[in-house]
Amino acid sequence: MMSEAALEEVSVLSSIYCGEGELRVRQQDAQDGLMVQINSSVGGERRLDVSLLFHLHPPYPLCPPAISVSSSSLSRTQCQDIRQKLLGQAAALPPEPMVHRLVERLQECVEVTEMCEEVKEEEEEEEWTAVLSLDHIRSRTRYVGQLQRWSLQLQLTGRLLLGRCILVILLGARPSIKEFCRLLKTVKVDVDSSGRKCKERMMKVLIESPSSPSARHGLQGFVVKSYESLPELSAAFQELNMTEIYQQILPSLSG
């Protein structure tokens, strides 16, 4: 049986959201409760139409409502993210009528979701530079071929510097660099001392930072280069306009 609190709340909501198409009671059933749809326009300069569907089960407000979020202006992932935020807030509220409070918090949820999306897009667009340290390369042809394939697939440019320290310099989108590192640690790219295929578990990220404009011009393709001494290694970084990065990782190489 529906609670009087729920019925009273819907009556109050009808007077608050009284514009054309703002509120609609989708279901009113003694066994299954009430379903109320509220259509709201939120956001800053770019107004977004968002539809919230609240299912008030008979025990409501002793239990929070079920919530669905839909919008033609937001992606499915964004709608799911907003839904999870609203459900979390509903669970944290005291057991009393809460639909109006949740609708009021929709603006905040949309702003947070859009901000996270913008940060993610900026991160994907911005180019980063990373320098990785590898423990060893025994099966050189196999290992180098795999690194070159990954860099091509992930649209990364880079250098493999072979010497006393084995270094991989990568330049590209940060998520692609992270995926490259994940592959290194999870795919069998080399062989161990017994000849068995093994993963690069000892890989270390020495540095990861936004790329400088000069570095973007210096690095093209994925090239393998050998060096004999630290001055030669320093020259390799200088050639790529990455002298500052070399100075930052030098303590790690000398250790």
UniProtKB/TrEMBL annotation:
Q: Which keywords describe this protein according to UniProt? A: Cytoplasm, Nucleus
User: What does the record list as GO biological process?
Assistant: positive regulation of hypoxia-inducible factor-1alpha signaling pathway; positive regulation of protein sumoylation
Coiled-coil annotation reads none
Presence of keyword Protein transport: no
| Domain RWD per the UniProt entry, residue ranges | 8-113
- Compartments where found: Cytoplasm; Nucleus
InterPro entries assigned: RWD_dom, RWDD3, UBQ-conjugating_enzyme/RWD
Output the Gene Ontology cellular-component terms. Answer: cytoplasm; nucleus
Q: Which Pfam families does this UniProt record tie to the protein?
A: RWD
User: What PANTHER family does the record point to?
Assistant: RWD DOMAIN-CONTAINING PROTEIN 3
Protein's recorded name:
RWD domain-containing protein 3
Which organism is the protein's source?
Answer: Gymnodraco acuticeps
Organism phylogeny: Eukaryota, Metazoa, Chordata, Craniata, Vertebrata
Its gene is rwdd3
